[in-house]
């Protein structure tokens, strides 16, 4: 009896995100009080995504080595360069925010990216593989990117990354794939898992926006400029993926994972880095704004892709649906 409500939640994620986001901004108290829920919500969301992936799906990922490499370049290099440019143009008078903007640009994709890929029936296995690889590379790549492009030396919170990679990503994903591959009941109820994952996404938005509401509102008119910059960076990520599709004539099975991998950022790493090095808290401001932007824009993109796909002939729609 829970299938229909959960299916409704995943189908109407954009509407729920907009409502919860607005509520969180103006009434941040409840969301701020449940900050402890972030880690379990992330783990459950990743587990549910894993429950939609079959072991056979992973065997197909080996066909896309160049796409995976390109996803790493998009995340760590091109997005970082554009973010650096934005920081120099708009935040030249604030070294802290400018540094935070560069750090944001060099972050890996967000943990929620595979969920968005699944909601449009994209290649979730490929997206999850991209995410795991980028998280593994982050401790090695991110410090060098920040130093090379910005001349800034930052200590990456390796312990935080290891815990996140193993406890929140690898173990839940592996458990989900195992259960999906060995249980007919699990395999046949994908709508349930996507619905639960969507609820976790809404909880994360609730906490993230609530926790940063005071800082966002306190910046007043300057907040509008930061918001403009982060929307620009977000759109640039989508643009990079779409440009890749046009140049290399990509099909949706590789384009859709790239779309969400390039446009999202694991913003929690920025906070962990600031806490680790006892840095000025203003460095986190760009990441806080970007978190809100991507958590709203991703469901919008899901809605757009679904709408466009429904307008295509049936034989073209199968291309997306068959990947899962």
Structure description:
The chain is an all-alpha fold. It has one domain: Na+/H+ antiporter like fold, CATH 1.20.1530. It is 81% helix and 0% strand. The chain has 17 helices and no strands. The protein has helices at residues 3-11, 13-26, 29-33, 38-50, 55-61, 65-90, 95-105, 113-119, 124-150, 158-182, 184-187, 190-218, 221-248, 252-263, 268-277, 285-310, 314-321. The chain is globular. The mean pLDDT is 91.
Relevant terms:
globular, 324 residues, Na+/H+ antiporter like fold, mainly alpha, 17 helices
* Main beta sheet: none
Looking at the overall shape, the CATH architecture is: Up-down Bundle
Question: Which spans have pLDDT < 50 for at least 5 consecutive residues?
Answer: none
Distance between the termini: 24 Å
Rg estimate, integer Å: 19 Å
Task: Give the arrangement of secondary structure elements.
Layout lengths: L2 H9 L1 H14 L2 H5 L4 H13 L4 H7 L3 H26 L4 H11 L7 H7 L4 H27 L7 H25 L1 H4 L2 H29 L2 H28 L3 H12 L4 H10 L7 H26 L3 H8 L3
Helix pairs in contact: 1-12, 2-12, 2-16, 4-10, 4-12, 6-7, 6-9, 6-13, 6-14, 7-16, 8-9, 8-14, 9-10, 9-14, 12-16, 13-14, 13-16
């Amino acid at each position: 009896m829970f299938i229909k409500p959960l299916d409704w939640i995943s189908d109407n994620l954009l509407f729920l995100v907009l409502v919860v986001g607005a509520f969180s901004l103006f009434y941040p108290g409840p969301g701020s009080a449940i900050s402890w829920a972030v880690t379990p919500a992330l783990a459950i969301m990743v587990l549910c995504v894993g429950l939609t992936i079959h072991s056979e799906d992973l065997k197909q990922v080996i066909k896309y080595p160049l796409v995976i490499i390109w996803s790493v370049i998009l995340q760590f290099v091109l997005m970082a360069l554009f973010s650096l440019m934005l920081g120099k143009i708009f935040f030249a008078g604030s070294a802290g925010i400018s540094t935070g903007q560069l750090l944001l640009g060099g972050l890996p994709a967000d943990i929620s990216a595979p969920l968005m890929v699944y909601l449009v029936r994209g290649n979730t296995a490929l997206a999850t593989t991209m995410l795991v690889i980028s998280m593994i590379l982050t401790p090695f790549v991110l410090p060098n990117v920040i130093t090379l492009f910005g001349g800034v030396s930052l200590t990456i919170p390796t312990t935080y990354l290891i815990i996140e990679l193993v406890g929140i990503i690898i173990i839940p994903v592996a458990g989900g794939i195992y259960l999906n591959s060995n249980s007919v009941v699990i395999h046949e109820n994908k709508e349930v898992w996507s619905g639960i994952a969507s609820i976790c996404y809404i909880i994360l938005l609730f906490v993230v926006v609530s926790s940063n509401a005071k800082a966002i509102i306190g910046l007043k008119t300057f907040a509008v400029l930061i918001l403009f910059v982060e929307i620009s960076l977000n759109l640039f990520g989508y643009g990079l993926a779409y440009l890749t599709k046009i140049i290399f004539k990509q099909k949706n099975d590789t384009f859709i994972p790239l779309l969400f991998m390039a446009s999202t950022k694991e913003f929690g790493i920025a906070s962990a880095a600031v806490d680790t090095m006892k840095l000025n808290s203003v460095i986190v401001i760009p990441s806080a704004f970007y978190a809100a932007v991507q958590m709203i824009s991703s469901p919008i993109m899901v809605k757009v892709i679904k709408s466009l796909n429904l307008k295509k002939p049936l034989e073209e729609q199968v291309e997306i649906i068959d990947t899962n």
